[in-house]
Structure formats: C-alpha cells, structure tokens
Amino acid sequence: MPYRPHALRAEAKQAEADRLMREILEGALAEVEAQEAAGMEARRSSGRKVLGLSGLARQSPLRRPSSAHASRGEDTGLTSAPALAPSRYDAFRRIKPALVARCTALMKTAARVLKTWRNAYRQARTELQQGLKYICMPVGTWWLKAQRLARCEALPEGSDPVALCLQLA
Description:
By secondary structure, the protein is mainly alpha-helical. It has three domains: 8-50; 60-95, no CATH class; 97-165, no CATH class. It contains six helices and four strands. The protein has helices at 11-46, 52-58, 90-94, 104-129, 143-146, 161-165, and strands spanning 63-65, 78-80, 136-137, 151-152. A two-stranded antiparallel sheet has the order 1-2. The protein has a two-stranded parallel ribbon with strand order 3-4. The protein starts with 10 loop residues before the first helix and ends with a helix.
C-alpha cells in the first residue's frame, strides 16, 4: 500500500501507512549502509586511503581526473578542467546550426550564400576595426547599425528578405 498522507484518513489506516513508510525508509537506509560498507572494504583491500581535509585543501579546484577510471584508482594522472573528455551533453551544447533544411539543393545554396555573407561581414568588420571610414556592412547586420557604429547596405525596395538572402529572388 503506497503512503498517501490524507487529513481525513482513519487513525488505523494512518498508523498502518506510517509503519509501511518506516519499513521502506529503514530498508533503504540498510541498503545504503551496505553499499557504503562494501565501498569501504573495497578501498581498504586495494590499499587506498581517504584523502582527508588537509589533502583536500591542497588540491586545485580546477583539476579533475584525466579519465572516468581515475576516480576508481585505475589512473592517477590529472588534467585541467578544459582538457576533460566531453560529457554526453557537450555535443548538444555545441550544436548550433545556422541552417536547417530538408531539401539538399536549398541547403547547399543557403550554405554558399551564408559563407559569402560571413566573408563579406568579416572583411567589413576588419576594415571597421582598422579605423577606415565609410565602411558599408552587408545586409543583415543589425547590431552595428542599431548602435550607429557602421552603415549597412540597404535592402532593395520591394524585395523579400528571405528570398534575397537565399538569392532566389
């Protein structure tokens, strides 16, 4: 019977629910204690010692085990945090697609246009950083225009911005 506290439950049922919950918690506590004892025995049998407070204070917070096996004592080499092997979530954090399309031809066209735009932007930005005046940033540069740091090419009147960017118009 699952434990479901309820204000209107009869005292006998409440006492039974409390007893069942106590049994569940005691069983879980016994299981955790057994796992801790097994871990301590494994540490003792392998000859490893507990690090302790002074050893922990001497460690750098930026250093990590060089592999997943190091925490089990199989590898003692340490490495700094940036050189860690990527976690399974790092791949998702790195995926930031600029383009997504089902049509291969459209995707290739869009990739070519994006590459051309980025090259034009990079060149104009370099010239702007060098202090050259009258630099015109490519269409689609918003922040520099909004901050009044650079002029931007005007969008041709009456054109569809999406079609223009994909060079389909």
